[in-house]
Write a structure and sequence with these properties.
Helix content is 72%, strand content 0%. The protein has ten helices and no strands. The chain has two domains: 9-161, no CATH class; 171-313, no CATH class. By secondary structure, it is mostly helical. Helix 3 (61-83) crosses helix 10 and helix 6 runs antiparallel to helix 10. The longest helix has 36 residues, at 9-44. The chain has helices spanning 9-44, 49-54, 61-83, 96-123, 136-162, 171-194, 199-204, 211-232, 246-273, 287-313. This is DUF1440 domain-containing protein. The chain crosses the membrane at residues 27-49, 69-88, 100-120, 140-160, 172-195, 215-236, 248-270, 290-311. It comes from Halorutilus salinus. Keywords: Membrane, Transmembrane, Transmembrane helix.
Amino acid sequence: MSTAEGIEGTDATEVTVDTTLTKWSSVVLASLAAGVVMGIPMQFVMGIMPTVGVLYGFESLAAGWVAHLFHSVVFGVVFAGVVSLGPLKKYITFPGSVGVGVGYVVALWLFGSVIAMPLWLEAAGMGGPGVPNISPMSLVGHVAYGVLLGGLFPAVHSVARDLRVEPSGGTPTWTSAAAAGFVAGLFMTAILHFVMELMPVIAALYGLEGAAAGLVMHTFHSVVFAVVFAGVFSLPVLRRAAVFPTSVVAATVYGVGVWVFGSVYAMPLWLQSIGFEYAPEAPNIAPMSLLAHVVYGAVLGVVYPVALYALNEK
């Protein structure tokens, strides 16, 4: 008899919901990690990341990364659905999951890169490479994605059982959130400062000047928004979403929400109100900024439950 079958009523439902959330959240996290590794040769070897953005009308490196990671998650979720059904269910554990993952992405490569992508580019008027588009490097990238997806999915699902600590709203919750916000802010800084050069603009929001002042205020924002995240997801109705790996999905969605509220609307309006010379118009839709907020959310979603677990262990 399974655990869920041995519990009646509401408890059985809660166990089922927790198991489902953990499975799908695990595959989302595994998909993101596999997608990042796959994206490295796409950008630095093949140079096609901006082309991926063109599929959605945005020809830029950031838009390509956002679209690529979106594809990675969607196809990862489909993979989890496939290996959860019928005769393939026995391969959901390592190392069988790796073999299924490789077979899955080879089929995905044939459908997506060889046939669908060039047809999509031609339909968008961008002059696709023609069908069939057989690229050995693209196949290598897909195989790397499949190996990591198949390996990380069961691994993350297993780790999730050990990190199962729900936030209580006490001191460990706020301390963990502040620490996670600080770390996530550092990762986000790599994009905002070294790619977008936005630190002086952030400083201008407070009447200050220079990249150093911008870094201080950006770190302050990162910690504050992380504490707000912890507060929201300490509510009883949302508490389970703060448990790893569901926390990664929840925090990433939260990061996108912060981007919409802060970068798309609040920041340009704030800069305009203080008469900043280079204030953008609202809505200020910048794919690179969206990517930075996705990185912030994903890192927050990993570090927060790990810090919470460490503090509760003490």
